[in-house]
Amino acid sequence: MYESQVTFTLDTQALSNFRSSSPQSSSISYTLHFAPYQLNPDFPPEADRHKWYLENKHFGDDAAQRAFQEHMASVAEPLGIALRFDGRKGNTLHAHRVVQYFQDAKGAETASKLLDALYVRYFEKGEHPSTDETLVGACVEAGIPGEEARRVVEDKDLGLAEVKRRLREVSRDVDAVPVVVVEGRKRDITLIGAKEVGDYLKALEKIASESS
Fold this sequence. Notes:
Layout: E1 2-9, H1 13-21, E2 28-35, E3 47-48, H2 49-56, H3 62-76, E4 88-89, H4 93-106, H5 108-124, H6 132-141, H7 146-154, H8 160-171, E5 179-183, E6 188-192, H9 197-211
Parallel strand pairs: 1-2
Antiparallel strand pairs: 1-5, 3-4, 5-6
Helix pairs in contact: 1-9, 4-5, 4-8, 5-6, 6-7
């Protein structure tokens, strides 16, 4: 069986669909790997989300911001996601640090659950993406023991040098996310920007057919 790594630079739905429906899925083993990326590495520790988007993305235009929020809500609703646009936002360095630490320590499945929990807390609950409370809660939801989660979250130096190194490496090749790289035996396939699930599924099937 050929083993392929799928690197997500922050949709795993396509991978799930491929595993459950494709006749080629038994011939290839995919492993998820999440790579860190900060769109705004100099972002302050904390900011009001609604105010920041209004001032920095919509230039004070309330109507434009409402139109954006209504559109995004309409896209997310059929997927069962109830987006919130209030709450706090802030620098995500330590969220990346914690995700990368537990990906290395416990594997891709735990990292995937951790990311899912963080996304729900930020996008649906309006929580700050990288406070200790948010990170510990997400870790516990991912199956990480609370004491271990708190130790890693509260030790700000643990894994910091490594995640900064990875961020520098990724930033040399990536200037926007998401980026998905599917590694194949003959070639890799890179998909840049948000795609439909079917686009990712085609990439997975292509790699499988070329690697058999």
